[in-house]
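Supplementary Methods. Inverse-folding protocol.

Structures were first reduced to a discrete structure-token string of length 271. This string, shown here, constituted the complete conditioning input.
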């Protein structure tokens, strides 16, 4: 039995791990290299070895141990063959209240790994896939509390925009709401809604809906659906369209993730 457990741990260690729940995605890998891309979630990157390299918006690469990065920021990361953890948090998720003050209006901030020294054992368990999803959720919260013990009391966005996000999430992907429908829900004119949405969240409503469709596609993926099923059910015209969008927003190819990744989530078969 012990031998089987070691073999199982070894298999998990050789693969990437993705933990996910609504609004949060954790990516755990033994090495990470991607091309320039930008996505809606804010990003907390943690090195579990030597510092990783980041290239931001075509600037020269720089090296960091822990980074908090704002949403919609073009970037690429190279962990240089070292273990690496990426925590993606949607800016309309409650946990973003911990990250926003750390950014202090900047595109990203760099922190010392010593701030997270007490998590080394749990990071190792995370790498080996030994933590349950509930334990991973608690780990993320514990990390955020250490980095910022005084989060915002509420998210820094206009309540009408948060209401719009909630309404859109209730609709997508079964129904793609029009701007007029959302404007009616939140009591704004269409032009004011479009302006305020982009000003607050840094992307258009159309792009926000596209991210929700990607997020739903990832949910279907983790449920074991085929790529063709995923593309159709999440509203993409075909498998190629889904693949292109995924690459552009998170720089992953579906085939690569499917072959090299273990998915752990609490997503049920229903929306």
């Amino acid at each position: 039995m012990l031998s089987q457990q070691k073999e199982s741990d070894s298999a998990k260690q050789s693969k990437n791990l993705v933990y996910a729940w609504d609004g949060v995605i954790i990516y755990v890998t033994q090495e990470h290299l991607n091309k320039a891309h930008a996505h809606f979630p804010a990003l907390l990157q943690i090195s579990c070895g030597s510092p990783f390299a980041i290239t931001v918006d075509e600037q020269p690469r720089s090296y960091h141990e822990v980074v908090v990065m704002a949403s919609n920021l073009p970037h690429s990361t190279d962990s240089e063959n070292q273990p690496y953890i990426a925590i993606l948090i949607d800016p309309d998720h409650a946990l973003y209240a911990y990250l926003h003050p750390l950014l202090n209006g900047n595109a990203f901030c760099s922190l010392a790994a010593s701030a997270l020294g007490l998590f080394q054992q749990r990071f190792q368990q995370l790498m080996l896939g030994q933590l349950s999803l509930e334990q991973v959720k608690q780990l993320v919260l514990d990390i955020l509390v250490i980095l910022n013990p005084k989060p915002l009391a509420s998210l820094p966005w206009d309540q009408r925009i948060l209401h719009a996000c909630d309404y859109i999430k209730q609709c997508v992907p079964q129904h793609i709401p029009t701007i007029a429908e959302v404007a009616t829900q939140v009591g704004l004119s269409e032009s004011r809604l479009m302006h305020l949405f982009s000003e607050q969240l840094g992307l258009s409503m159309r792009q926000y809906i596209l991210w929700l469709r990607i997020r739903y596609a990832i949910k279907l993926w983790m449920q074991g659906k085929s790529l063709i099923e995923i593309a159709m059910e999440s509203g993409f015209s075909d498998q190629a369209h889904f693949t292109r969008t995924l690459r552009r927003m998170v720089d992953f190819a579906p085939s690569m993730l499917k072959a090299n990744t273990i998915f752990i989530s609490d997503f049920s078969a229903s929306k």
